[in-house]
Design goal:
Elements: E1 2-3, H1 12-20, E2 24-26, E3 36-38, E4 42-45, H2 55-63, E5 67-70, H3 74-82, H4 95-106, E6 110-116, E7 122-131, E8 134-142, H5 147-162, E9 166-170, H6 174-178, E10 182-185, H7 186-197, H8 214-222
Parallel strand pairs: 8-9
Antiparallel strand pairs: 1-3, 2-3, 4-9, 4-10, 5-6, 6-7, 7-8
Length: 227
């Protein structure tokens, strides 16, 4: 369900409240200055014990071909996510969304997981918002093969280690479904959300600046299961 009104006074506080009751803002495209609230009838989530990692992706994660960092360059990540790509020519990330999430990043609610190649270039990553023990994944991008997937594995490992209870994806696409994302009815999602919001989790259970190996992240993401 979408509520296509343009809320004039969305502040970071309003945004946090909206997420806590199951709603999030979108725009029709990056050049559209308006926003509207969305509360889908079917909500996408990643069960934290249900990440699907293929053998080839597991090898890539373990190889540490990408260096994973968190919260290093929020602006670059959201810029890349807003830029779209050949498989996603249009995005909902307009200037108002960038400003709001930047403010939430400055306040410690929004986070990034970033993948860098051997030359130090940002080649993939994702950003999202954490409230309590819920993490709301907003968008991801890649400029190199599997870079965003590696970032996702590191995110799930971090969330599981830090005690998170919910990883929200908003919607399920075929790409996310191949990695384990599922849909759940709105009422069931809201119950799950209430439980997660009322709990606590530590996104920085692996401190910023600490180099987490792919093998460690993969083991944490899969609960020790070896794909």
């Amino acid at each position: 369900m979408s509520r296509k009104t343009d809320p004039p006074e969305i502040t970071p506080q309003v945004l946090l409240r909206a997420y806590s009751i199951g709603m999030f803002p979108m725009s029709d495209d990056a050049d559209d200055p308006t926003l509207f609230w969305v509360d889908p009838e079917e909500r996408g989530i990643f069960p934290l014990d249900g990440l699907i990692v293929s053998k080839s992706l597991a090898r890539t994660v373990r190889s540490d071909i990408y260096r994973i960092e968190i919260d290093r360059d929020f602006d670059a990540v959201i810029e890349a996510c807003a830029g779209g790509g050949a498989d996603r020519p249009k995005t909902w990330i307009n200037q108002r969304i960038r400003k709001l999430y930047r403010e939430l990043f400055d306040r410690g609610f929004a986070h990034t997981v970033e993948a860098y190649d051997a030359a130090g270039a940002l080649v993939g990553g994702l950003y999202g918002l954490q409230i309590g023990a819920a993490f709301f994944g907003e968008s991801m991008f890649h400029k190199a093969r599997d870079a965003s997937k590696v970032a996702l594995v590191h995110l799930v490992g971090r969330l599981r280690t830090g005690g998170a209870r919910l990883l929200d994806t908003q919607f399920v696409t075929p790409h996310l479904e191949s990695l384990g994302a599922v849909e759940m009815p709105r009422d069931a999602y809201h119950r799950r959300l209430d439980e997660a919001i009322g709990a606590s989790a530590n996104f920085h259970v692996w401190p910023k600046g600490e180099c987490i190996s792919g093998a460690r992240a993969l083991a944490a993401a899969l609960g020790g299961i070896n794909p």
